[in-house]
Amino acid sequence: MEPIFTLPYPEHVIAEELNKYFPKKEGYSILIPLSRQQKGFDIILYNIKTKKVITIQVKSSRTYEGNPNKKRSKYPERKFYTWFNTFKIEKGSADCYILFGVYKKYPYMKKLDKSRKISKWYSHIFLIFNEEEMSKFLSEIKTKKGNKQDSKFSFGFDNEKEVFLTRGASNQPNISQFLFKNKLKEIKERINNGTS
After folding, report:
1. Cα–Cα distances in Å, from 185 out to 39, 64, 89?
2. Residue 132 lies inside a defined structural domain of this protein
3. What 3-state class would DSSP assign to 131?
4. Which helix (H) or strand (E) holds 45?
5. How would you classify the pairing of strands 84-85 and 122-130?
6. Which contacts of 5-11 are long-range, i.e. CB under 8 A and separated by 24 or more positions?
7. Is the dihedral of CA 174, 20, 56, 47 positive or negative?
8. Most buried of the four, 27, 29, 50, 167, by CB within 10 Å?
9. Contact (CB, 8 A) for 44 and 11
10. Is residue 174 part of a domain?
């Protein structure tokens, strides 16, 4: 019997997404470690022309549906929320960190419309941080009162264009600058020119 290599769904989706923007015909490769216990990184983006490498660590979360009837005194209720534990950054282990969430596109419907393809019901969202940004982001995660470090954080969103830190900061800041598509230019510069 031949051994079977399996890949967690978030890593598969991220590798597919990277392939769209870093195609093989332009000299890029997406590499996955054979060991599921690989420390430090989960995906490697490689440019054969420049010999530059970007190592990526993936953190994933279930996505929870918001309650459209819930009244919030200060901030609007979001359609979707993620939930992450804070984690320790080991300096030099990964160049980038991805926070990934998969969600149901039509959150408040109880039954699936059988005429639709199942793939049309789900989508994903992810944020990407370089090592310095991730370290700073995690160090600033605070409880609601803002007086101590929180062990968990969450981001909420209604669509794939705007994301807000909903747990981990008292003022729910907009963190859309870390969305993958907003960071593409920076990633391309780094892998093509070797900028760090």
Report:
1. 27, 30, 24
2. yes
3. helix
4. strand 43-47
5. unpaired
6. 5/34, 6/36, 7/32, 8/58, 8/60, 9/102, 10/58, 10/60, 10/100, 10/102, 10/124, 11/42, 11/43, 11/58
7. negative
8. 167
9. no
10. yes
Q: How far is CA 73 from the centre of its chain?
A: 29
* CA distances (Å), origin 158, targets 65, 71, 79, 112, 147: 10, 16, 5, 20, 29
**Is residue 1 in a domain?**
no
Number of independent structural domains in the chain: 1
Neighbours of 67 (CB within 10 A): 12
Residue with tokens 């310095």: 132
Domain of 96? Answer: 9-193
> Over its length of 196 residues, how does the chain's per-residue pLDDT go in tens digits?
566 667 888 999 999 999 999 999 999 999 998 877 778 899 999 999 999 999 999 999 988 888 766 766 677 889 899 999 999 998 888 999 999 998 887 655 555 555 555 556 788 999 999 999 999 999 999 987 777 889 999 999 998 899 999 999 888 899 999 999 999 999 999 999 865 4
Tokens of 183: 């960071």
- What are the φ and ψ backbone dihedral angles of 117, each rounded to 5 degrees? -70, 140
